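Two proteins, back to back. First:
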Amino acid sequence: MLTKYFFIGIIVAVILQRLLEVHLSDRHAAEICRRGGKEHGDNLLSVVKVLQVSWWVAMIAEVWYFHRPFIPALASVALAATITGQVLRYLSMQALTWRWTLPIMTVPNLPVVKSGVYRYLRHPNWLGVILEIAFLPLIHSAYLTAFAFSLGNAWLMSQRIPAEEQAGERKH
């Protein structure tokens, strides 16, 4: 029973992190606009929000109502992968600095960022999200949530990544 509360604590920490990221994104979006930038296309942010909130609820519901077991070996691997995802997302934000936003935004005449983690990975933030969505539920054996939301996230990325690439090429 104690492991379920620990698991919920992790989820609450991720929720608080996401709320801070929304605030940071809003600040960065204002800076981008101040520098003459603009938002591109349908960012699917409403889909992202529904996916995120549903993912949190599904994890808790699956663990609580289906009495998913806590398996220490699986939890250790899942926690390590989740932390790796968090690190990739943080490194992405660090490399992009004020250019990191939730909506797809660009500033005219600024090149695509190729420093920091972007020297090694094209979309480190998305790789971090993949790891989080797939592995956070597995910390407490919520394999149905991990599978279903990984599929939903794959669809979202199939829409979002090409839109980001196109915005990077267009710039205005």
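And the second protein:
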Amino acid sequence: MRGEAIPAGDRNTRLIIVGNLLHEDSLLMRIKEEINQGRAKGVFKEYPLLDENDNCLWPGKYPTPQDVEEEKLNISSEISWQREYLLRIIPSDDQVIYPEWIQYYEELPGVRHKAYRGTYTAVDLAISTKNSADYTAIVSAHIYGRCEKMRIYILPNPIMEKLNFPTQVDLIKNYKRTQMLGNYDKLFVESVAYQEALPQVLETQGVEAESVVPKGDKRTRLALTSAPLKSGMIKFPRVGCEKLIEQLVGFGIEKHDDLADAFSLLINTTLDKHVNEGTIIMAFLGGDSDDDGIIYYSDYVDVDN
């Protein structure tokens, strides 16, 4: 489109581009980013039907809030309403994670809580520092409880940076030695292509990391986290995970999904490790009892109470 439109006109021609914000990497969003960064000359304007205070910007057609509500009822599609009228970037109907599933914690229970199990961290690696490349992403959580009582508290300020391999190694070493000091803390690294070398390099430098082979595609892996998200097993801080949540809710339309990938790696690996634990079986042989001599003991600690 640019190749056809930009050469048109003369030096005084004003080029006006009109459209909807379909996703973060759409033409209009790219132009907006270029203008904001000073790489393009222009003005970006957006006029949603309702401003941030729900005031209608088209009072001639919708003079009252009731008129706006009637128009919304005529649309009968929340996605179309948000996208076409409010100019919000909304995923398509096959959205993986919905914003109402995101639950928050006000305060971390802390590492001294009786249910605390450790700090788990997942790393999604990128191989290049070019502008078009993916980011290296690190997402961590405190793990509490067992089985259905398990709670995963995502820690604020996950890392998302463009790094080369030596810098990745240094960053992960420093993170492990400063943020993961417990005996039961675990570091997960996705094992794909060149990434398989990272755990080996870290091990030679005294940092234990576990290679994890991803199962299925990105969408499938993220979809596997939907149930624990909806149930409240996973909780986020009120401040500090905005970009991660944006990538989860906007998966498929966000320009980058590296934090979402690290998140799904963290959650799915944690659940795979602990889904069947919590029941300790102690067997006693012999005796005159008619039962099987097995005692079942469930070690549940409720972190919410």
